Amino acid sequence: MLYRRAVRLPLAGAVSLSYTHWLQRLPWNRWQLSLAEAITEGPGSRSYWPWRLPGGRRLLQLAVEVVRGQAAAPIGCSGCRRSLPLVAAGAGSGLSAVMEPAAALQILVAVALAALGLLVFIAHATAIKMPNLVRGEKEKYFLNANSARKELFPSIHDPSTKELSVIVPSYNEEQRLPRMMDEALEYLEQRLKKDSSFSYEVIVVDDGSKDKTTEVGLTYSKKYGSDAVRVLTLTQNRGKGGAIKMGVLSSRGRFILMADADGATKFADIEKVEAALKALQPGPDDMAISCGSRAHLEKDTIANRSYFRTLLMYGFHFLVWFLCVRGVKDTQCGFKLLTREAARTTFSMLHVDRWAFDVELLYIAQCLKIPITEVAVEWTEIEGSKLVPFWSWLQMGKDLLFIRLRYLTGAWNLEKPKKVN
Length: 421
Prior knowledge:
Layout: E1 7-9, E2 15-17, H1 35-41, H2 54-68, E3 75-76, E4 83-84, E5 86-88, E6 97-99, H3 101-125, E7 141-144, E8 149-152, E9 162-170, H4 177-194, E10 200-206, H5 213-224, E11 229-233, H6 240-249, E12 253-258, H7 270-279, E13 289-293, H8 298-303, H9 307-324, E14 336-339, H10 340-347, H11 357-367, E15 372-376, H12 389-408
Parallel strand pairs: 9-10, 9-12, 10-11, 13-15
Antiparallel strand pairs: 1-6, 2-5, 3-4, 7-8, 12-14, 13-14
Helix pairs in contact: 9-12
């Protein structure tokens, strides 16, 4: 005999549902639909198309009518001896529907799987297969501030001619950029005087700014020379990840450092990330990544944050750990040092151009078994952040989920990078 146990569920309109064994035979793993569209538009909805199997169509009809609170004739299942009757009972009388726990659970599982299937479909269908590595014609050149002539940027595929490249992504940073540049260039010049074998370049990447970020960068280029400071002006905003990617692809350094334009990280801490990178002892492929970390400051920042922002922070950290990257406590610190080969390999595969690009970068590195280390750096919060707490975290959460789904479904692949024009 079929064991049955009833539970009451508050629904609009009272109906009675009898659970039968055919529910267990339904192909749950093949159902993908937009239930909201199906309920709104009815059987004419395009969301019905994945439900071509008889069992799927019947259960969708049941779900739609239950949510609407409508009565319906008994719903049969072709190929089964039993049926799933849906009987009207006292519409508007305040009664509630009776449904067996197993039936309710399986319907919820079906809807959850349908939603997941739809999400996977959207992630796969909207994915741009290849990373955006194309530079516009104007983006291939930098202005020599002294001669006022345009010169061609080199390529990451060329041999290195500098010891260090510093990439500074900048979007509307007219006010904050000078502080960072003064600190960085003072350190780099002093190091150059102490060590004649040391050489450097700083590439300020203007990410489609609407202020005078490019002009500010060019003042430093004129002061220190275009061999030391160059400005890459993007014709349109690409996002922080896209800006850094364009800078990396145009760099000359044997080692490449990402540094934020706000100067939140003490620039002299480059010595810490350099020491940690050398401790990794990159192998013959010369690939390694050293990440600056603010994780040691987490307790202090929690004390000054609202509960909501703290919850968002922990939620984001969990998603990073669960979906993409493990073993790195602070993926979002903008102070990272890469060997040239590691930068060439990872950035040539990078798809995400916005805030979550760090996560994909480290995900790629871990998939390719590139050694990664993390070291504490001195960090101070600077006013003027472009990060909007709620919406930026929401965007990053979506990007994290899509990163995982797109690599799992094969929409994105870890292919060997090709030379960039």
